[in-house]
Task: structure prediction
Amino acid sequence: MWIPTEHEKYGVVLASFRGTVQHGLPLEIGDTVQILERCEGWYRGFILKNPNVKGIFPTNFIHLKSAHVKNKGQFETVLPVEDTVITEMTSTLRDWGAMWKQLYVKNEGDLFHRLWHVMNEILDLRRQVLVGHLTHDRMRDVKQHITARLDWGNEQLGLDLVPRREFSMVDPDEISVTELYRLMEHRHRKKDTPVPASTHHLFVHVKSLMSANIGEELEVYFHIYDGRENRPLSERFFVRLNKSGLPKSPEKTERQCTLFVDLGSSDLRKDVYIVVHIIRIGRMGAGEKKNVCSVQYRRPFGCAVVSIADLLTADSKDDHLLKVYACNTESEWFQIHENIIKKANSRYNLSGSNTGLAVALQLLHGDIEQLRREYMVLFTRGVSITRKLGFSDVIMPGEMRNDLYITLERGEFEKGGKSVARNVEITIYALDIDGQILKSQVAAGSGEPGADEYHSLVLYHNNSPRWAEQIKLPIPVDMFRGSHVRFEFRHCSTKDKGEKKLFGYSFVPLMQEDGRTLPDGIHELIIHKCEENASLADCSRYLKLPFSKANLPSNNQTLKGIKESFCITSFLCSTKLTQNGDMLDLLKWRAHPERINDSLSKLKEIDGSEIVKFLQDTLDTLFGILDESSQRYGLKVFDSLVHIINLLQDSKFQHFKPVMDTYIESHFAGALSYRDLIKVLKWYVDRIVDAEHQDHIQQVLKASEYIFKYIIQSRRLFSLATGGQHEEEFRVCIHELFMSIRFFLSQENKGISPVAQTQAVFLRTFPAVYGELLKIFTVREVAGFVRETLGSLPTTVQADCPLETVKLQCIAKTVEDQLYINPESRCLLLPVVLRLLQAHMQEQRDQVMCARILTSMLSLIKKEENGTAVSNEPVVSEEVQLIVESLLGVLLRTILEISNRPQPAGPSMRLQFQDVTGEFVACLLALLRQMSDRHYQQMLQGFSSKDDLRDFLLQIFTVFRILIRPEMFPKDWTVMRLVTNNVIITTVLYLSEALRKNFLNDKFDNKVWDSYFYLSVIFINQPCLQLESFSPSKRKKILEKYGDMRVMMGCEIFSMWQNLGEHKLNFIPAMIGPFLEVTLVPQPDLRNVMIPIFHDMMDWEQRRSGNFKQVESKLIDKLDNLMSEGKGDETYRELFNSILLKKIERETWRESGISLIATVTRLMERLLDYRDCMKLGEVDGKKIGCTVSLLNFYKTELNKEEMYIRYIHKLYDLHLKAQNYTEASYTLLLYDELLEWSDRPLREFLNYPMQSEWQRKEFLHLTIVQNFDRGKCWENGIILCRELADQYESFYDYRNLSKMRMMEASLYDKIMDQQRLEPEFFRVGFYGKKFPFFLRNKEFVCRGHDYERLEAFQQRMLNEFPHAIAMQHVNQPDQTIYQAEAQYLQIYAVTPIPESQDVLQRDGVPDNIKSFYKFNHIWRFRYDRPFHKGTKDKENEFKSLWVERTTLTLVQSLPGISRWFEVEKREVVEVSPLENAIEVIENKNLQLRTLITQCQNRQMQNINPLTMCLNGVIDAAVNGGLARYQEAFFVKDYILNHPEDGDKIGRLRELMFEQAHILEYGLAVHEKFVPQDMRPLHKKLVDQFHLMKSSLGIQEFPAYVRASPVHFTNGSPRTCRNSVPSIISPDGGRGVARRSYPAVNRYSSSSLSSQASNEVSNITGQSESSDEVFNMQPSPSTSSLSSNHSASPNVTSSAPSSARGSPQMAEKHKHSRENACLSPRERPVSAIFPNPLDPAQRAPPHQIGDATLPRSDPNLSAPDKVRPAPSSWSLDSVKVGSPYFSESVSKQLCPPVPPRPPYTVSAKNTSSQSPLPNSRSPQKTTVPPFTPSPTECQSSSLVSSSPVLSGSYSSGISSLSRCSVSEASGTELPTSDHPPPHPLAPPTTLPTSLSSGSDEPIRRENKTPPPYNVFMRDNPRRPVPLPHSLSIPPQTDPPALPPKPHQLRTGSMKLDGTSDPRVPRPRPLPRKVSQL
Result:
């Protein structure tokens, strides 16, 4: 049976449990579980991190922990009873764990590893805490360490700052908001600005001395030296080194390491140095032999110096190698360090190039106890302490020190009968009163223990030596009296014996007879002569002698005349001994009563350090004198006491205050002193008002705290001694004293008077008196004193009076005092405090102090509330009411004032500013949180009028909006923000009731309601309330503590909105945006509450104005902003749609409502797609396509011009980033066309400054021209240049006009000189529901990048859509694909169908110009799919080979504002086998004509291309090529079965005869130009041609062929295009040098090719022209007559993925191209099926490169730009012409039509290419540029090159047959604006009126339409006017060809439907997006 558990509530999982049993709960090791029930070895419960899933688990898997249960029962929560630090560690480590893994994923390796180490460290420390074996101090250190690590990790990971008190987290509900703020602020400040340490220490570790010639032991002395004052700052640290230069005692680290302690901040400056002196112990001369003398001397070696400032910048752990210098002359050894510091180079030099002292130096900061904790290893290992000379900046009371430092300065000695100067050594002894040598009391420095004696340096042959050696005598205090120091002088001989001879001595006593020690300073000692054998053991004999020349009696001339002398400097650093006689006189006052007056007067002159040494003795002395002679010395004793008390205020002695406190409590015995002290104090206070000089009185008042302490203690002692006698007398005295104080405080003073300053001094010390008074008086009595004293202060004083600030400081101390904490006294003091505080806050003065006072008051109230009994609640409530009445309004005004004030500039001032704001905010929040229902009611009822209440509500709503600002608190203060929000929502709920009651219906106030709604919206949208962005654990904690405050506020908004009634109209449309922002918050409950408000708004707007246009407009405007900020999601779109549709079901305006909702929903779809795309990294098609979709939506559906323009610029930026310069130009042109050439001023917008419309349009024109130039769309740039030039000309701005004309000329040059790559086009289908809305189930045509082939494009698309599946067929997908929850991509290449036929068909137009019109302004594309209809004839596949031709029409032409556009219309037609055959032969005939003409005109560098073509056609025909057509279509069965094809059969026959005729002519030309070595091949070709003729049955050409045998001018002998045809003859080549094609080696696999193919390959090494390699057409068949190879099934319908150009390569690159071998599947055979339109078939010499060059690199050499061959599997579609076919094709053959007038269908959009340098400009080469042959075809429907998959040169029917429509099918397009009635209808003939005679006038008057503009198509559904910005007046005559790109040819463009070409065009409207 399951029993609820009582104590087993919380546990940790010890082992993982799979939960395989029924109802089992899977557990992971380490999980924490809450236990609900128990049953027979099983528990039932849940894991704390997932409380929704409950289950059972074994009891033995759980380790139980004691826990505290809250809300016992169904909703109980369990908290483990453990150290709060442990709890925090556990939860924090769990949060870190997940984030730590993410660091690895994000590749943030450094933080990953650092966090790993910290986590391990915390786990280790956690174990130590859990074990519980630590001492209290150690536990404290560990916890401090843990919290520091936790804070570091939280900061690094961007987590919240945790408020702590004593290492434990605090519950924000348990403490006041003000206290919480202080904790947060303290932790924040601690994190930001560590407090600089005032005490510093230098750690020195001596490593070694590196020198080549040591050989002797060394002594190294370190000390710190002040270079400014030229004195040592510290004693010396002494290290002994052995002969190798290493420490002599390596095992004793304290002898190698020291800590120079107690350096002040002033000592860390540049002129403070570490000075090192090195002494060698050995022979007198460094170079003497070892056996000369065995005696050791201390001799100078070297010196090193380093500045302490260098250690502040260097790495603290660096080892330093100090350079060691030696002095040039030994006599200057004493000042070598000064010379090094001063850089007196002439006096010292390096002691050796390799000599250096290796030491570790490190500066440590903080007091010594802190260092002991932080550097425990250092102190446990051992380190000697080297003290400062003198006391540190702060003297500690317990410090014991008694050190006498003696420095050997200099000596003056006589020669003593020697011929040279002496080598003097001094031996120093310390002796006690009995003459015994003090053991170990002479120390050379710290580091080494003291010795019995000390031997000085020996300076060689120097009678005036200067040593500057310092020794320390740490003699105990009790041995000082009677002790002396003796100096013995010896001469050190350098002879063999090396003996030391005593010749004199000096001595100095350490203490004088009166008890004073040896005074500090220089002492010149007398040298007493003696012999070597003189006995100095009996010191009494010489102690009677004088020791110093200064002490000699005046009559002792003998000793005064002695020249010899010895100088020392002494310095005593003692806490027990004094050198001051006045001090000793005072302490011994009883021995000399007559000196008392004098001693008391001199006390003020004694140094403070001397007084504090004897503080207790001095105080005893003073009170002793007072007790004995109070009448006589009372005032002087009082003054002396004041002096001592004020001395302890000094920072140096402040630590002696506890000493005085201890004295008062334990040692003070002056029971009668209080009377005298009160009397003197009152005497001083009474004199204040009248006294002229206030200084002394101020000193007295400054000491009043301790004076009161003495008074109170004295009275207590008296009461104890007498049983409380004279109590009333004492009270009267105190009352009289306070009356005097109140009188002087009440004096009003103007400005800064002395009395005001005295008042300020008293107020500073007054709060310290409270505690003392409480020892005798009751709480109410003391509170009465304080209230009356503070109440006596003058209320009106000037603002600049310092008393104001001091007053507040006094109030602050009062509020923080123990007196105020007592409720009994607080009720008396609170009114006074509030009155003063209110006055200051209203004046906006001393705000920092006001905030501090208010903080203390409110913190205390919270503590009282938490800790007191129910009986005290009324007291607390009353206090809150008082504070609310006095300060709430002032507090709100103060916060508003501070927030609106500009922030100060300085960082320290800014911090203070933020502190003040934060403190006041915390006070406001604390006060509001303390307020109960009753307080709110009283407050709201307290307003005298509605206006006052209105002002208050506006104020508080504004303040709340300020509190919600992100900058109000640091970003990691989430705890503080949540508390703030909780207080705000609680207050708002109270105030909303007041709003409803007082400001609704007839009393409605729009401003208050508006403020309320805006506050609510801002509240909901705060980042700190967006729980979705938090970790699960943080979210859970917030929800448990506060709930979701957004939903609470949302419900309140809805409730208030419903109360508004008809007043709702006041907030429409203003509140639409804010409410929309609220609904976008991803909280389902909030959305469900708020979305219905929009229905309400629509309803009220409908009632008011009959529509809701305003609602719609505002919704749309705001949606864009909000969604671009990342708000909203797909769920919101669906919810918005469903809720509102449901709401409007029964409305009368349902239809228009549905329309609005649909529009907004569609906009959301696009905005969400746009946002998702923009999240991606690089610019890709998806981003651009999405932007285009949104841009069009804004223009066409919403008509939002500003948003439209914004997205134009976003799209422009995307294009620039992707280097799509042409598309960028078209995009910016959309904005340009919205502007006029007017002077209308335009506001500042986006990145445009304020300027006129003309200026902005000019700037746009120039930018667009620049981009067209970069994109190689120079023709488009020219149009804009002309338009700008016209503007400049109209304003007579000839300077700019000149520049514009030059720019236009440069663009023309670029057209002729630079190469443009020809792009590929690809059709892409996006199928499936997973695609973004703007792509879903749509097909597009995309313009590929430079050099991009099908495989590369397909791979790019798959990279952009990584989840997409590539479809492997070209058939239209079915509905299952459309509806699939997946992404399918269908990609294949398509062929462009140019619109601009005029330029393409015109003779003499260079290919550079034609290439632009072939690939720009393309609306239609096609691809062919060959298939067999019926049964396939295996013998002759041509009988059943049909072609399915699909034509795709786009919504906009390419190129345009995007690289891809959607397909608007598909048309599918089928081409019969016969029509296919006609096309194939026509194309082959055209190719032959082109090659023959190029050869005639010497445009080929060699004749190989023509040879190959002739060989391919003749060889294939001989081997049965044409015969297959004859078998298929000329047999009787076919003619009978297809009577309707009679004309077509005739046409096919004519084409065959025509081909034979062309071949015959071609052979004639070939014979003329063929090289000698290829004559055998030519002969073979002639023979095979005769065979071919005979196989065709041709004996003589038909009459119609002979009649016009050479009219090849426009591609066919049947259509003469020029009025004067160019006659082709073998000798008719132009007399101009031409460059010939390079041929390319190719292996033919054709079975129909004859031996000649191989022969040509063998003879020339080249078998196919470069045309063939780069211009290939896929054959429309899956089998071949000329090859055994079949195409892959994937190749069924594909456009070419090869280039269309036929580049002419530089000579140096020929070889590599000629040797390129293509596989049968890859090799192109475009020469077989030339495109009748394709001038690239004749590849001019300067047309190098292709469409694969990146636009950004114009510098690639031509051969580098050659395209790779296409892959064999690519879905290339056939490039075909317009599908106009009819049965009467043969009618076009004869008679020849009249010459064509020069007009054509208008060109539209242009392409973007990148500039290529060309070295073959006409001006720079002797070879003129190639002019296209007059035989070029100018069909309006056929396009570029015609690649096939396989097959050799043949008669035109090899491989899969040509699919492109021939010249016959589309040459004469309709010339009117109307398309043909049916795709297969025959083309209409040209009107005869447009004959050659009218050619010139028409040419002169009409202009070509701008290529980029979309104003005309052969489709009546799209009549789009030309933008006025690109309309050019038609007055000027055009130059000779090429025509100006912008001219319109009216013959093909009649906007008004009339036939008159000269009717002026009406001014068009700006272009619409729908017309793009």
